[in-house]
Amino acid sequence: MLSTVLVVVSSFLLLYVVFLYPALLMLLVRHRSRPIRRRLDRRSVSIVIAVHNGAAFLAEKLRSVLDVDYPSELVEVIVVSDGSTDDTVSVARRFAPLGVQLMELPRGGKCNALNAGIARARGDILLLTDVRQVLCIDSLKYMVECFADPSVAVVSGELLIRKATSADEAQVGLYWRYETWIRSQLAKIDSIFGATGPFYAMRRELAVSIPGDILLDDMYLPLAAFFRGYRLIVEPRARAYDYPTTLRTEFRRKVRTLAGNFQILRAYPDLLGRRNRMWWHFVSYKLGRLLLPYFLIALAIGSAGLAAPWSWEMLAGQALFYGVALADSVVPEGWRIKQISSPVRTFAGLMVATLCAVAVFFVPPRTLWKETRIAPQSRGAHSGM
Predict the structure, then answer these.
(1) Considering only CA atoms, which of 159, 258, 181, 188 is closest in space to residue 22?
(2) Rounded to whole angstroms, how far apart are CA atoms 285 and 295?
């Protein structure tokens, strides 16, 4: 009896988090959307780029920033080099005649670099962006329009992934589109729970100091405004382009971001309390994602306790699922089975990453920061924040 209950409950929770909640969210948006008041006011903007060893991307990034369709006299650009040992500083200096400011800091981590850049910033609006993503020319204008709505504190841009060069990269991109869709639906209802880390804007007066060991500055900063009653939204017209990454690279990034969610729960315990006006969404989305691998473990344990032949069939089905995930790495590109095996491998890899994320309780959080490497066929194996 206990095994049956375990199988039924864990199966339902798995289906709820992955499929049912997104379906309910879609229905909710149709009946409870809160439109954003948009108007382009002339607001000053400080663009802060925190970077460690991003010389390979910095020139292209700065060109895209300086080319945005927005009055140049209202924009300041601040590059914060976080102990870079490559040519980041020299590249930034080449843009000094165009008004780019450079801050050189000893290696202290992204949060300390952002704190320093924000402290120097003088604009009404902060645009916080990483070095690798190229901004579309009208992206800043669309973001600033959203701040005409006094309820909006943070505006995330839409991160578009360039064309993948392998099925592995394509499936990571597919997962990102799934995540982006959920975030956009939450923003239509009220608010998301953070921002698109490589590309978001916020009111400067709402920025708080970020603890140096925080792994998710893009949640810590926005949530301070969320708990003051503001909305954190997505502006899909504000776009930036990023390079595709492999599952191995995404795995390391997901370990960090999921570990960061545990940190955020400790920093903002009210996420699980009455002060969180979107409590149901947080539990269904963020907390549900953290618990997914444990639902899978519970399903396996429950299946093993069922009477034959049900136990054999349930366990065989799960073994087949994980076997497909393992086999994907040796399936040649172009084979039709890749359309099934790659998504399964991506899902399984993300579940393992979630289990690994508990390492944040046992190791210094900063050790979970890993360089993001781009496949040679995409841009060369370079890294950056």
Answers:
(1) 181
(2) 14
Residues 6+ apart with CB under 8 A from 151: 229, 230, 231
Instruction: Round to whole Å and give the CA distance between 173 and 164.
Output: 8
User: Which residues are bridge partners to 155 per DSSP?
Assistant: 201, 233
Domain at 45-260, CATH class: alpha beta
Q: What is the pTM of this model?
A: 0.88
**Of the given ranges (29-43, 110-124, 221-235), which has the lowest mean pLDDT?**
29-43
Distance CA 229, CA 232 (A): 10
149-198 pLDDT, tens digit per residue, is 999 999 999 988 776 655 555 556 667 778 889 999 999 999 999 998 89
Distance CA 349, CA 333 (A): 19
Say if residues 314 and 306 touch (Cβ distance below 8 Å).
yes
- Picking from 23, 30, 46, the residue whose alpha carbon sits closest to that of residue 117 is 46
Tokens encoding 237: 């017209």
Residue 19 banded pLDDT, cuts 50, 70, 90: very high
**211, burial (CB in 10 Å: exposed 0-12, middle 13-18, buried 19+):** middle
Distance CA(247)–CA(355), nearest Å, equals: 16
Mean pLDDT of 58-79: 96
Residue 285 banded pLDDT, cuts 50, 70, 90? very high
3-state DSSP of the chain: CHHHHHHHHHHHHHHHHHHHHHHHHHHHHHHHCCCCCCCCCCCCEEEEEEECCCHHHHHHHHHHHHCCCCCHHHEEEEEEEECCCCCHHHHHHHCHHHCEEEEEECCCCHHHHHHHHHHHCCCCEEEEECCCCEECCCHHHHHHHHCCCCCEEEEEEEEEECCCCCHHHHHHHHHHHHHHHHHHHHHHHCCCCCCCCCEEEEEHHHCCCCCCCCCCHHHHHHHHHHCCCCEEEEEEEEEEEECCCCHHHHHHHHHHHHHHHHHHHHHCHHHHCCCCCCHHHHHHHHHHHHHHHHHHHHHHHHHHCCCCCHHHHHHHHHHHHHHHHHHHHHCCCCCCCHHHHHHHHHHHHHHHHHHHHHHHHCCCHHHHCCCCCCCCCCCCCCCCC
